[in-house]
């Protein structure tokens, strides 16, 4: 560890922090993470690590305080989980639409209706993903 820096691992679930590698975990969706926060040059930086492997996950978030940095990384993890689910939903809707186009005859009124319903579901999934992307949290207050 570099001189002049401190390291704190925080439990967002319990709402209190512990220092010096007393590791706590947070669950976001079905994934579990360890949150790590360190002060560097007067700026607090937080990141997540996958619980199972210790591998870094996502982005590093900064803040003027430890609490702000941890709040930012937690909000980003929540957003990322929601974004991944919406992206999967869009991909499923795209596949369903392509299957409908391949099998539903546009000559039959029911075929046209099936295609329209499938296209409407695809558009709804795209709009939802766009709305989630528009809410992406900022990684830091100063950058």
Description:
With 143 residues, the protein is α+β, with helices and mostly antiparallel strands. The chain has two helices and six strands, in the order E-E-E-E-E-E-H-H. The longest helix has 38 residues, at 66-103. Strands 1, 2, 3, 4, 5 and 6 form a six-stranded antiparallel sheet that branches. It folds into two domains: 7-74, no CATH class; 78-134. It has helices spanning 66-103, 109-134; strands at 7-11, 16-19, 25-28, 31-40, 43-50, 56-63. Helix 1 (66-103) packs antiparallel against helix 2 (109-134). It is elongated and about 70 Å long. Residues 1-23 have low confidence and may be disordered.
List keywords for this structure.
alpha+beta; 6-stranded antiparallel β-sheet; 2 helices; disordered N terminus; 143 residues
Largest sheet: 6 strands, antiparallel
Number of helices: 2
- Total domain count: 2
Q: What helical percentage do the residues reach?
A: 40-55%
Oligomer: single chain
Shape: elongated
Order of helices and strands: EEEEEEHH
Question: What would you report as the Rg, rounded to the nearest angstrom?
Answer: 21 Å
Task: Report mean pLDDT, rounded to a whole number.
Answer: 83
Kindly name the structural category. Answer: alpha+beta
Unreliable stretches, pLDDT < 50, 5 or more residues?
A: 1-23
* Record field, number of beta strands: 6
- The separation of the N and C termini measures 25 Å
């Amino acid at each position: 560890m570099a001189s002049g820096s401190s390291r704190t691992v925080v439990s967002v679930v319990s709402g209190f922090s512990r220092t010096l590698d007393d590791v706590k975990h947070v669950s976001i969706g079905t994934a579990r993470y360890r949150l790590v926060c360190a002060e560097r040059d007067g700026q607090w930086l937080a990141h997540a690590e996958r619980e199972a492997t210790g591998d870094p996950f996502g982005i590093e978030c900064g803040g003027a305080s430890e609490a702000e940095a941890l709040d930012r990384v937690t909000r980003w993890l929540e957003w990322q989980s929601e974004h991944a689910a919406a992206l999967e939903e869009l991909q499923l809707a795209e596949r369903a639409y392509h299957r409908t186009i391949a099998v539903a005859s546009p000559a039959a009124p029911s075929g046209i209706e099936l295609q329209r319903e499938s296209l409407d579901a695809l558009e709804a999934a795209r709009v939802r993903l766009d709305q989630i992307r528009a809410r992406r949290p900022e990684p830091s207050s100063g950058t």
